[in-house]
Amino acid sequence: MTRWGAAARSLIAAASTIALVGGCGPASSTVVEGRAASMLFNPERVGGLPVSDGPSGIRPDAPAPVTQPENGDGSEMDRLAALAVDDIEEFWEENYSRYLPGRFEPVKRVVSYDSTVRRGPRICGSDLYELANAFYCLLDDVIAWDRGLLVPVAVEHFGEMGVVGVLAHEYGHALQFKSGLVDKSTKVLVREQQADCFAGVYLHWVAAGNSKRFTLSTGDGLNRVLGGVIYLRDPLMVGGALADAHGSALDRISAFQMGFAGGADQCAAIDMEEIEKRQGDLPQQLGWDAIFDEPVLDSPIDESTLSQLMDVLDDIYRPQEPPTLSTSPGSCTRADPDAPAVYCPDTNTIHVDMASLQMLGEPKNEDKDRVLVQGDNTALSIVISRYALAVQREHGAKLDDAVAALRTACLTGVAQGRMTDENGIDFVLSPGDADEAVAGLLTNGLVASDVNNVPAPAGFTRILAYRLGLSSEVDECFQRFT
């Protein structure tokens, strides 16, 4: 985010983490019929399922894997990946004809490799040394995964279900081509969005308790999977070519949510027209093809920046009694004293812990630092969310429950959706800023938290509420979250 408007608009460079660009593909999916759209914003439901925490990963009573990957080593990493392939194939065997033309045909080959070993198998004519990846190769009709780095790193940071989601996505690429949904001329963006969507449908089936091999909680478990979608996303640009754009974190999560809360028929209908229509109500700079001219420029997190931000928010929300900002410790007994920012309704004051906020706003290298995308808007979106609580206080809304938390995310999105050159705002939102906010919604949830800094329980719904706000007016947030 920049406070200097168009003159300092930033180039959103490819910021992929591990090199997962080889071939991410959609995943299998079961569709629970009749998931009502009205349930999307219920803080107690996710895609029609109750929000709950609990175990996520391989079931204790899971059967032994049937898939035996070529070049496997019998490790737990290979067992996890092989069980994922079994599960995905079982789903599609049973459900393929409901959603896609023809009949289900499994991939011909499944290969495991270790990217740390110089002399390993060659796939699609390529040497896999140092390729920490999972991919589908159309030429050989093969799915492969790196058991040396990719799988263990994904398990460490995103759990076993993060790996399952990646492989579901890769298997979806195979299904795309086999069903004729795409061909080599289809834009990468379409293929990737379809793949994310199919992965969401499949994982809903797992979360609903239908898998014999895996469980997935709709709370922390799904949050970690969504974190993997962001962290393991492909770059916005590959080789500098816009035609290879894969989509931002907001794009990828949006497509995943379509599948998880909708169905495989919606995934099959994704094309450029659908993508452009879906993004048509977003600010222009959040579109998949938004590319700017200058290096990334993060605003410093200091009193000057926050003062300018407060002025902008006064202009956007136009409250009768704007809240004040304090960088000294507050006396809010109800709020989390260790939070980087809290809102005190009794004094209508936002108290900021500058050191904590600066730490959250420090740009991070995802690959080097092993974090989700982070930058100035990770911090600034939190301050905006505390201002959103002041807006709710003025409207007489309840401030201390999960509905208030989602309303806060929505109102934060409203403000950020207005931060455009077209609106003459000094703070201009860029695609990277939206990704920072989305990542923060998963990692700390403060942008979707109530006056006590208690987040809404499901990251999935937090992101939906924020996304709604980006293309909405203030009144719509109050109407939706009552």
From TrEMBL:
<protein>
    <submittedName>
        <fullName>Neutral zinc metallopeptidase family protein</fullName>
    </submittedName>
</protein>
<dbReference type="Pfam" id="PF04228">
    <property type="entry name" value="Zn_peptidase"/>
</dbReference>
<dbReference type="InterPro" id="IPR007343">
    <property type="entry name" value="Uncharacterised_pept_Zn_put"/>
</dbReference>
